[in-house]
Amino acid sequence: MTITEKVAYLKGLSDGLAIDTEKSKEGKLISVIIDILEEMGMSIEDLEENTTALGEELDAVSDDLADVEELLYGDDDEDEDECCCGEDEDDFFEVECPNCQEPLVIDEDVLEAGVIECPNCHSQFAISDECDCDDDGCDCGCGHDHDEE
C-alpha cells in the first residue's frame, strides 16, 4: 500500500466517523492534518517517480559513455602498450650508446630532446622515438617476407 493509498484510507475513516469539521475544534484539526498528509503523500510519490526516471536516464547516459570510451580507447588488452617489435612503450626507454655500446635507460623528456650524452663515455648522439622494425618482419625495409622465397 502506497502512502497516498494510506492517506486516502485515513480520510475515509475520518469521513466514516462523521466528525464535524465546521463546529468542532478537534474535527478541524483532524481535517487539516489529513489534507497535509495527502499533499505530502502526493509530493513523495512524485519524487519517487522522478527518481526512477532519473535513474533510468542516468543508466542510458552511462551506457552511451561506455560506448564512447570503447571507441576512443579500444579494448583494455595488455598488448596495448607494446609496439610492433614487442617492446613495451612505457615512460622509460632503453637505447645503446653507439660509441661504447653501454645500455642507457632514458625517459620521454630525453627522447623528445633528440640528443643524449652517454654517462659512460661522454659522447653525444642523436636518438629517435621511431621503432626500427617493420610490421611484415623484414628488417631490410623491402617489404617482402624472405622466408617464403
Describe this structure in words.
- With 149 residues, the protein is mainly alpha-helical.
- It has 2 domains: 3-73; 79-149, no CATH class.
- Helix content is 46%, strand content 11%.
- The chain is built from 3 helices and 4 strands; from the N terminus they run ααββαββ.
- The strands form 2 sheets. It has a two-stranded antiparallel ribbon with strand order 1-2. Strands 3-4 form a two-stranded antiparallel ribbon.
- α1 runs antiparallel to α2.
- The longest helix has 49 residues, at 25-73.
- The model has no long low-confidence stretch (mean pLDDT 79).
Q: Topology of this structure?
A:
Elements: H1 3-16, H2 25-73, E1 92-96, E2 103-107, H3 108-113, E3 115-117, E4 124-126
Antiparallel strand pairs: 1-2, 3-4
